[in-house]
């Protein structure tokens, strides 16, 4: 293991590549990354880096987002089979049909979506800025794709006419109220933090619903000692590493995203050597999807 870590470090320097990893990645992958973060932070990093090669340790839509924002760079996804089932729940044809049915609605699309779907959208959003985007976009009528739970969460704060697409994250939908109540029984003083991709009834009993980096920030700043965490288990690595004196309890052992667990150090090493698994998108899709992503930055205030 130590050898492969050193080899990755060496080739990365030689090739002037940057390794980005999502908060759900395997601990050893997070540890060799130059930057670990949530979807918004990773997009911003991909947009602003000078590196010409980006190795993206995450899932397909995240690497696509990096490519859209930095089309001149080589964006590599070490495991091309690392997809996101929620992103695949809406297709461009399906969205076009809905847009034709509701022509006066603006489309806000969660970044957990394909580049083709982003290209048909007015603005993108992430879990950390969805409320701002829906609030600030210049329309009272919104089609929100693909996550029905994030759409519902946003509707708690923004009173607009929102048509949600019926997509969901299979990992987060596995979390039930009874899981949290059970963990709470032995840790009554614990704060409950969940992701907005969880079901509304789960969010109802949580102290806060936050993006992955939002959860990390909250745990740093809050005076509590114990936290029940309702999101994918990969986040516990950073939480425990950065707050060794605090206690983190995963709300359910079923909170595992198989796609986020695919990338191993061997895949990162191979990706650096071979420079295959390259994300390629058409100029037209990049142009349209980039507009939606840049609108997200513009509307995030
Ligand atoms: P974050 O943007 O909160 O990191 O979420 C990404 C994701 O895929 C959640 O399932
Ligand atoms: Fe997609 Fe859910 Fe996995 Fe996030 S946790 S990548 S939304 S399947």
Molecular structure report:
This protein starts with a helix and ends with a helix. It is globular and about 55 Å long. The protein is an alpha/beta fold and 301 residues long. Helices cover 45% and strands 16% of the residues. Helix 3 runs parallel beside helix 4 (60-69). It folds into three domains: 2-82 and 260-280, Rossmann fold (3-Layer(aba) Sandwich), CATH 3.40.50; 86-168 and 284-299, Rossmann fold (3-Layer(aba) Sandwich); 175-250, Rossmann fold (3-Layer(aba) Sandwich), CATH 3.40.50.10800. The protein has a four-stranded parallel beta sheet, sandwiched between helices. It has a four-stranded parallel beta sheet with strand order 6-5-7-8, with helices on both faces. The model has no long low-confidence stretch (mean pLDDT 97). Strand 3, helix 4 and strand 4 form a beta-alpha-beta unit. The chain contains 15 helices and twelve strands. The chain has helices at residues 2-15, 27-32, 39-48, 60-69, 92-101, 115-118, 130-136, 148-155, 170-173, 177-186, 200-205, 212-221, 235-242, 265-274, 283-299; strands spanning 17-22, 35-37, 53-57, 74-76, 106-110, 123-125, 141-145, 161-164, 191-194, 208-209, 226-230, 247-250.
